[in-house]
Write a structure and sequence with these properties.
Elements (H helix, E strand, L loop, with lengths): L1 H11 L4 E5 L2 H11 L3 E5 L5 E2 L7 E2 L5 E2 L2 E2 L4 H12 L3 E4 L5 H14 L6 E4 L7 H9 L6 H28 L8 H19 L4 E11 L2 E10 L9 H11 L4 E13 L7 H12 L3 H13 L1 E3 L2 E3 L14 H14 L33 H4 L5 H17 L4 E12 L2 E12 L27 E14 L8 H10 L8 H10 L3 E4 L2 E4 L1 H13 L6 H15 L5 H22 L9 E6 L6 E7 L2 E6 L8 E2 L4 E2 L8 E6 L6 E5 L8 E2 L2 E7 L6 E7 L3 E6 L10 H4 L5 H4 L4
Parallel strand pairs: 1-2, 1-7, 7-8
Antiparallel strand pairs: 3-6, 4-5, 9-10, 9-16, 10-15, 11-14, 11-16, 12-13, 14-15, 17-18, 19-20, 20-21, 21-22, 23-24, 24-25, 25-26, 27-28, 28-29
Helix pairs in contact: 4-6, 6-17, 6-18, 7-15, 7-16, 9-13, 9-14, 10-13
């Protein structure tokens, strides 16, 4: 009887299920959704991986990787094994991508011998009660082909990195590293910088004039002179036109109306989100992905924790039927006039992984206004553009009408245009994503042949032709996507690695290669042109896709690459001369500790001064950029950093005795001819980079010609 009672009691007990996700934030959200009987734990990413200290690839054994428990993670792994032993079921719920599949695979191997529980894989693209419960109802198996694709990428990157990095240590400088994808991105940035440096700006002028109708004044631009497009190469050419037309009769010679249909854009993919966040919000790619991760994993909203957006690493614009029904229901209630008859479908890009949907809000009813009290400013701004982009993608087209008026004044023709929305369409929900170009300008009502008051004020303006723009976070991500380099999960890390290694710096949101970056790029491209190029990298991505689709064996893919690559590494090692110390420069500075000369050296974070008596003397200091301008101070201006990951500023070496600081970078040893204070490099969108005196009481500003001069190489890369 006692045995029967025990069995009955055990049967009555609810079965326990362990769910393993990647992050604690996600675990907190999901555990609230699943309730009693479920324990949700976080693996904190990879628990088992390749070691960092060695290549750990058995080349002779068909490139098998040597996995180990990640340092510092053994305790967590044992805890998960204990939890699994006490559970009836284990659900591996890591992210639905290659890395997530690999994490699940390693966890399965580490847990299966420690528990009798049934281990299954679940996937979901959004963290909502419905999605999580649906995933739990339909567990599946780990996709070996997806794991193999991750394994192939990891092994290939090891083979490239662990062969090229020691080569750089030997030939250039200790501590350097090279990667298969990052090196190609560096090449793109360096090639663009070469174009920027080679560009020679040319002067040209534009002319605008004020016209009046009664008391109303408006401005129009010169678009034609003597029947041709004006080519104004000098100020004198503009003055000649003004002198000729300033007393001429001004008449409306033509009025044109044009209508334009503006279609809504597809919802966000990872790259498009990073581009829009960079352009609209000024976010770096890293910041965009960090905030998107927070929105995905869950935000505490009162008593509930809600995942506000779907998975943020995707190259697909696919929308689930549930999401389409949700957004169309919301539009029916809120913007019925802008609801199209059928849902709008967007073409999925070539080579896109269609496992995920687009990035979209999990519930359209969570409008930005309704959730703003729960979000930080940056979270709200990013969520707003995601919400606007998704909802607007399922709305009707907008229409604009542009009115262009031509005004003749002697042989000159001026034009003024204004645009307005005649059908709002999807613009009804667009605020943060709206473009200033959509609605522009205004002027009084004008009629054909109407005579206006003579042009009474002219605005000649000097310009210089703009060369190719340096890459920004937005434009390099767009280029990487277009060329098939990397995947949605790698765009942000690629940029971060280049910045962290001091191969690239940010200057006014532009990515500028350092001298070290240029040198590394030159060596790698000359030595390995077949590997450090966009075509090879894109081809690798295609082959990884084939591995994931079970069309290609991963070892075969690696084998065909490695033999010729290793042969080339050995050739370069034997024939390339070392350039170690090439960037070191003697200086006239003397070490105050031992009296020996100081050397200018390149370190991990840029140039610095080091005593030539090293290793006996360890004295180092920042490179002085200018003399301190404070009367009676004999200090020098050097770069400093605020605590943490603060921005650079420039202060006196006599601090705290002298508290002079500048937030603008001094131009090395360049001083104002008027007051003697040092010059700095400033930047604005209208003028680009230009020189200016740091003295607030001095009005000295270099001419436009000087502003166009190319700055010395050492100064083009603002240190970060």
């Amino acid at each position: 009887m006692a045995k029967k009672a025990t069995t009955a009691k055990k049967t009555a007990q609810k079965e326990s299920t362990l769910v393993i996700v990647e992050s604690p934030a996600k675990a907190t959200t999901i555990e609230k959704y699943l309730g009693p009987g479920y324990t949700v734990k976080a693996s904190m990413g990879h628990l088992i991986d390749l070691p960092k200290s060695r290549m750990a690839v058995k080349i002779e054994e068909n490139f098998q990787p040597e996995y180990i428990t990640v340092r510092g993670r053994a305790k967590l792994l044992k805890e998960l094994q204990k939890d699994a032993k006490k559970s009836d079921h284990v659900l591996l719920a890591s992210d639905n991508d290659r890395e997530g599949e690999a994490i699940a695979w390693h966890l399965n191997n580490a847990l299966k011998d420690k528990t009798e529980a049934d281990i299954k894989r679940i996937v979901f693209n959004e963290i909502t009660p419905v999605a999580i419960k649906e995933a739990v109802k339909h567990p599946g198996e780990i996709e070996e082909s997806k794991v193999n694709a991750q394994k192939a990428r990891r092994v290939l990157d090891r083979l490239v990195g662990y062969n090229l990095s020691p080569l750089l240590w030997k030939k250039v400088k200790n501590g350097l590293s090279a990667g298969r994808v990052q090196s190609v991105a560096l090449r793109l940035i360096c090639e663009r910088e070469a174009e920027v440096e080679a560009f020679i700006p040319e002067e040209y002028w534009s002319l605008e004039a004020d016209f009046s109708k009664g008391k109303q004044t408006f401005t129009a631009q010169l678009v034609q002179y003597k029947g041709a497009k004006p080519e104004l190469k000098s100020e004198q050419a503009v003055k000649d036109i003004i002198a000729e037309i300033q007393n001429s009769e001004c008449k409306v010679s033509d009025i044109k109306y044009t209508e334009k249909t503006v279609r809504p854009k597809a919802p966000f993919t990872t790259s498009k989100l990073q581009q829009s966040a960079a352009n609209r919000l000024g976010f770096t790619s890293r910041k965009t992905m960090q905030i998107a991760q927070q929105l995905y994993e869950g935000i505490q909203m009162g008593a509930n924790r809600i995942g506000l957006i779907t998975y943020m690493r995707t190259d697909s614009v696919r929308i689930s039927q549930t999401a389409l029904d949700d957004v169309r229901d919301w539009l029916t209630k809120n913007h019925p006039d802008a609801l199209p008859e059928k849902a709008i479908e967007y073409a999925v890009g070539k080579g896109a992984q269609d496992a995920h949907e687009c990035i979209r809000p999990t519930y359209v009813s969570y409008t930005p206004d309704s959730v703003k009290e729960y979000l930080s400013r940056d979270q709200l701004r990013l969520y707003t553009i995601i919400w606007e982009r998704f909802v607007s993608s399922q709305m009707t087209n907008a229409k604009t009408r542009t009115t262009s008026v031509d005004i003749s004044a002697g042989d000159a023709l001026f034009r003024v245009s204004a645009s307005k929305l005649v059908e709002k369409g999807f613009y009804a929900v667009i605020k943060l994503l709206s473009s200033k170009e959509d609605v522009t300008g205004s002027f009084p009502s004008l009629k054909q042949n109407e005579v206006l008051d003579s042009a009474h004020k002219f605005y000649p303006e000097q310009h210089f032709t703009q060369g190719p723009a340096r890459y920004t976070d937005a434009s390099i991500v767009r280029m990487l996507e277009e060329k098939g380099i990397g995947r949605p999960s790698t765009y942000a890390p690629i940029i971060s690695v280049l910045l962290d290694r001091y191969y690239v710096t940010r200057s006014n949101k532009q990515l500028v290669p350092t001298q070290l970056g240029k040198m590394i790029c030159k060596i790698l491209v000359e030595a390995f042109p077949d590997v450090i190029n966009e075509h090879f990298t894109a081809d690798v991505e295609n082959k990884l896709d084939e591995v994931e689709q079970d069309k290609l064996v991963w070892n075969t893919m690696i084998g065909s690459f490695y033999a010729p690559f290793k042969k080339r590494v050995d050739e370069v090692d034997a024939t390339t001369e070392s350039v170690k110390g090439f960037l070191d420069e003697p200086t006239d500075k003397i070490c105050e500790k031992c009296g020996k000369p100081m050397m200018k050296k390149l370190g991990r974070f840029g140039f610095f001064l080091a005593c030539s008596g090293f290793p006996e003397c360890h004295n180092t200091k920042s490179i002085p950029l200018a003399k301190c301008p404070v009367d009676g101070c004999d200090g020098e201006i050097v770069e400093r950093k605020s605590k943490g990951r603060g921005k650079s500023f420039y202060g006196c070496t006599n601090y705290p005795k002298c508290s002079f600081i500048s937030h603008f970078k001094p131009l090395q040893d360049q001083y104002c001819p008027k007051c003697g204070w040092f010059l700095v490099e400033k930047y604005d969108k209208k003028n680009g980079s230009y020189k200016s005196c740091i003295n607030p009481d001095c009005d000295y500003l270099h001419s436009a010609e000087d502003a166009q001069e190319k700055l010395p190489d050492a100064l083009t890369a603002e240190e970060e």
